[in-house]
Amino acid sequence: MDSFTWSSLLAISLLSCLTTSIAASGLGGYTIDGRIQHSRTQGLGGNVVPFKTSNVKIVLNSGQKVAFIRPDGYFAFTGIPAGTHLLEVIAPGYFFSPVRVDVSARQNGQLQATLTETRRILSEPLVLEPLREEAYFEKREPFSLMGLLKSPMGLMVGFMAFAAFLLPKLMENMDPEDMKKMQEMQSSSLSNVLQGRSS
Question: What is the set of domains in the chain, with CATH numbers?
Answer without folding.
Answer: 29-133 (2.60.40), 144-177 (no CATH)
